[in-house]
Amino acid sequence: MAYSYQDALAYYGVGGAHPGGFSLTKQIFHNENITHTTKILDAGCGTGQTSAYLAEMYKCDVTALDIHPVMIEKAKKRFKERDLPINTIQSSVENIPVSDQTYDYIISESVTVFTNIEKTLTEYFRVLKKGGILITIDMTAEGPLHSSDITMISNVYGISYVLTENEWISLLREVGYRKVNVLHSDSLSSHINKSLEQPEFHISPSIDPKLMEILQNHQNVTSLLANKIGYRIFKSKR
C-alpha cells in the first residue's frame, strides 16, 4: 500500500505538527475578537486539538473538517471525551459542503499547500461571511527553489511547487481577499533552532513501519532545506 504524508500524521495522531506549534495557534487567536457567537471553521482539523481549544477557551461555534477518516475519528473521540459540542465534517477543503457565507473565521494550519491551492482559497472565500477572516499557516519558499529541491519535496509531500510569500499574497488577492497581512514569518532553520515545543501524539493501535519511514523522510527534507523553505501566517479579510 502506498501511504501519503497525511496518512503518517493521521495514524500517529500528530497534533500541533505545523511550524510554530500549538502555542503559536493560541497566540494568534489571543489577538482576535472571538465571542460565543463567533462561527469558526477549522479547515483540516486533524485530531481536533485547535478545535477543542477554541470551543473550550471562547465557547464559540466550531466546525471541524478533515478529509482523512482516521483524523476525523480521533477528533470525534477528543470532542466526546471533553463533552464539546463541535460539529465534524469529513470532506476536502477543496469542496466544503456548507452554504455560502457561513463562517466568521477559518483557521487552516499546514493544509492548503497540500491541495489545489487556488481552488481551496476560493472555497474558503465562498464560505466566509463578508468581512470574515481567513488565517492560514503554510509552507513558503524563501526564494527560488532548485529542481532537485522540488523533487525532494514532491517525493515526501506529493506537491509539485512551493509558493513564495509574494506569490501567496498575490494569489490571495486574486481570489478576492481585500486585505492580506503577514502575521508571522520564519525560516525552518530559525524555527528548528529556537523551538522547544513537541507535538502531541494519539497513535493508532497498528502502525505500518512505512509510516515511520515517511516521517523520517519529512525530518530529512526539513533539515536539508531548512534555509530554503519556511512558513508564513497570513491573515486575509474577505
Question: Can you describe what's shown?
Answer:
- Residues 40-132 form the Methyltransferase domain.
- This is Methyltransferase domain-containing protein.
- It catalyses: phosphoethanolamine + S-adenosyl-L-methionine = N-methylethanolamine phosphate + S-adenosyl-L-homocysteine + H(+).
- The model has no long low-confidence stretch (mean pLDDT 93).
- The protein has 238 residues and is of the alpha/beta class.
- α1 packs across α9 (209-224) and α6 (147-157) packs antiparallel against α9.
- β1, α3 (49-58) and β2 form a beta-alpha-beta unit.
- It has a 7-stranded mixed β-sheet with strand order 3-2-1-4-5-7-6.
- It has a single domain (5-237), classed as Vaccinia Virus protein VP39 (Rossmann fold).
- The chain has 9 helices and 7 strands; from the N terminus they run ααβαβαββαβααβααβ.
Quick summary:
The chain is an alpha/beta fold. 41% of the residues lie in helices and 23% in strands. It has helices at residues 5-12, 21-30, 49-58, 69-81, 117-127, 147-157, 165-175, 188-194, 209-224, and strands at 39-43, 61-66, 87-90, 103-109, 128-141, 179-187, 229-237.
